Amino acid sequence: MPPVIDIQGISKTYKGGLQALKTVDLQIGKGEIFALLGPNGAGKTTLISIICGIVTPSTGTVIADGHDIQSDYRRARSRIGLVPQELTTDAFETVIATVTFSRGLFGKAPNPGFVEKVLRDLSLWEKRNDKIMTLSGGMKRRVMIAKALSHEPDILFLDEPTAGVDVELRRDMWELVRRLRESGVTIILTTHYIEEAEEMADRVGVILKGELILVEEKTALMKKLGKKTLTLNLQDPLASLPPELGEWDLTLRAEGNELEYVFDSNAERTGVPSLLRRLSDLGFAFKDLNTRQSSLEDIFVSLVHRDTGASVQGVGA
């Protein structure tokens, strides 16, 4: 089956010489949830804007559901729903009028039943006659999603969809995304909540300085790059690490009460049994131990550090 989105050789350089996007090749399958991660200014929004026909690329082509986004813009764009990062809507209109009007912009015949379903799915039906300016930030975000779904797109872009949304509403949206995927909608998600990508994505792409440095299935990525952390709660605190433990890369935490060891769980020799034996031989007792699998956030930060050598505070837009 051909990809629903086929990106070939896309790049973007602005007139001033700023290269916002280096050459990107990417294919996304029908019904897939693809998460695009990257720090501020990495090029995520530029890439989405090109795919949606908002920004013209310097080179390359984008085919959306069989239609070229430049030469066949109207048909390609009709296949796409976009929830932008910024809240941009008519504050003086009612919720239902805004969503209905958005459907008409794409040439869709009126369908009050479908609009009602979208609003109910997003818990907006009770607010349908409220003016948008009276809504909370979370409810305005839901209206943006309703607008994007109003013309029944096959492809949905969510650019930081849950920014400013509380945890309960965020989980409601996750459930909606899953239902959309089950109906065959392809979803491309950018987020600075890495747990969002970890929760929902089938594949993950990491973009850095305009370059797509990695695309991998989420489970394969976590298996390939994920580490485990062994934490030992010591019976008696240590002032410093003894030289006898130098062959292990250990970290002393919690004012000397915890000993932390990061290891590759897929390696033939993890070093854990020999570490525990050495601690016993040296007479170190511990009250408890636990292991933790690296999260997608750990992996993302390690990838960015590897490619920049600099620390990253988060994964904003």
Automatic annotation (TrEMBL):
SUPFAM superfamilies: P-loop containing nucleoside triphosphate hydrolases (SSF52540)
CDD domains linked to this entry: ABC_DR_subfamily_A
One Pfam match: ABC_tran
GO molecular function, one term: ATP binding
Keyword Nucleotide-binding attached: yes
Residue ranges annotated for the ABC transporter domain, each copy included: 5-234
InterPro entries listed in its UniProt record: AAA+_ATPase, ABC_transporter-like_ATP-bd, ABC_transporter-like_CS, ABC_transporter_ATP-binding, P-loop_NTPase
Keywords attached to this entry: ATP-binding, Nucleotide-binding, Transport
Keyword Chloroplast: no
PANTHER family in the cross-refs: ABC TRANSPORTER ATP-BINDING PROTEIN
Protein name as catalogued: ABC transporter ATP-binding protein
Originating organism: Brevundimonas aurifodinae
